[in-house]
Amino acid sequence: MTITITAFENSPDGGRGLARDMRVRWALEEVGQPYDVRLLSFAALKEPAHKALHPFGQIPTYEDGELVLFESGAILIHLAERHGGLLPKEGNARARAIAWMFAALNTVEPAIFDRSLVTILERDQPWFEHRLRALDELIRKRLGDLSARLGDADWLDGAFSAADILMVTVLRRLHGTGLMEAYPNLVAYVARAEARPAYQRAFAAQRAVFDAAR
Amino acid sequence: MTITITAFENSPDGGRGLARDMRVRWALEEVGQPYDVRLLSFAALKEPAHKALHPFGQIPTYEDGELVLFESGAILIHLAERHGGLLPKEGNARARAIAWMFAALNTVEPAIFDRSLVTILERDQPWFEHRLRALDELIRKRLGDLSARLGDADWLDGAFSAADILMVTVLRRLHGTGLMEAYPNLVAYVARAEARPAYQRAFAAQRAVFDAAR
Predict the structure, then answer these.
(1) pLDDT tens digit string along A61-73?
(2) Residues A171, A134 share a domain
(3) Which of B6, B76, B107, B137 could form a disulfide with B162 if both were Cys (CB 3.0 to 4.6 A apart)?
């Protein structure tokens, strides 16, 4: 059975690997699982054929035989159920890694994602500076807490896990903002993840889509 | 071993059960698991003792012997591993329910949560009306997609699951905004969930904290 995921035909991130298919590509590379990609235009995302797979008309989706999934976090948990190397086997360690998965997506990502949107959509609005300052303050609070907990560890909780895939892809969205540089251990954490061969294969694969679209 | 969770000593929601401990209380009631609650002041949330349990200084946390968890979504998955009734046993159905858990927290909640904050914190700002309109537009898009997918089903994907606990607690934050009323099946979905005895026990328990604090 071939696994098929969906991704943007023309990613708005300019080939920087910031779209959420990157998480699924990376996880699939970590477990050595080949996959096909179906590329979608922005118009196709909102069509019934895609909404039958993804109720909110987004990417990525994951198809494997009869199983259809959406939400990158859920796809990573499913892959971890089927393959070793993405979540600890021991119950308590596994539960803690899943806590970090939700923390990445529900506690750390929202302000960082909003900041990306605001710098694109609200740059000319009179309140732009104020909104940016408020978001940066919240982002610094989250980064400070994350940095304090990570300390000099390599990964969030013991061995590398799907939680690191999610957290690193969230933090990478800060590249170029100058916000992460106050936390050298977070900069090193992201670099350590980006050096993994599975990350590099996934990055090259999404980059190839961008290059082909130009 | 006694399970202990944390909650606000003085919830900012006025006893309406909108804080995230409600999700964990509800899930514990669904599986019939007794629990203790440690109430925390806003100051205590930021102290080292609590941050050792929750890196971002929030509620709820979950302690059971040596295991310490944070993030309501992760706590619900852990409870589902230990007890029946919160997630399907069959692999594909379980993976789909987990997709809905992430959808509730990462796709539906952010705009709804932002709207709550904006109406409290930004009401006097010059951009208030603009921000509210933009958030309401995004919320309506999400509700429209959710309503279309739910159709006339009772729950998100087959039997009641932890995904319904998360989605309903997210949607309840819209009470009083008038946004949900355009989608009668979502109004009925929330009412159906609120009628569950486990929900009512959890609601009464968090309400008792509010009443005692007054």
Answers:
(1) 999 999 999 999 9
(2) yes
(3) B76
Domain extent, residue A175, equals: 91-194
> Which domain CATH number covers B34?
3.40.30.10
Residue B213: which pLDDT band, with cuts at 50, 70 and 90? confident
Q: What are B146-187's pLDDT values in tens digits?
A: 999 999 999 999 999 999 999 999 999 999 999 999 999 999
Say yes or no: A68 and A139 in one domain: no
Structural domain total, chain A: 2
Among A90, A94, A106, A123, which would you mutate to test the B interface (most chain B Cβ atoms within 10 Å of its Cβ)? A106
Same domain (yes/no): B25, B114: no
DSSP for A170-202 reads HHHTTTTTSSGGG-HHHHHHHHHHHTSHHHHHH
Task: Confirm if B165 and B26 have CB atoms less than 8 A apart.
Answer: yes
| Residues B29 and B52 both lie in one domain | yes
Which among B57, B69, B95 has the least Cβ separation from residue A99? B69
- For residue A137, report the phi and psi dihedrals to the nearest 5 degrees: -65, -45
Judged by a CB distance cut-off of 8 A, whether residue B109 touches chain A is yes
Helix (H) or strand (E) holding B4: strand B3-8
Cβ atoms within 10 Å of A44's Cβ, excluding its own = 14
The reply to whether B137 touches chain A by the CB within 8 Å rule is no
Residue B46 in 3-state DSSP?
coil
Asked if B58 and A103 come within 8 Å (Cβ–Cβ), the reply is no
Phi, psi (rounded to 5 degrees) for A68: -120, 125
Among B55, B72, B78, whose Cβ lies nearest the Cβ of A145?
A: B55
Per residue in B7-62, pLDDT (tens digit) is: 999 988 989 999 999 999 999 999 999 999 999 999 999 999 999 999 999 999 99
Q: Are residues B70 and B115 in the same domain?
A: no
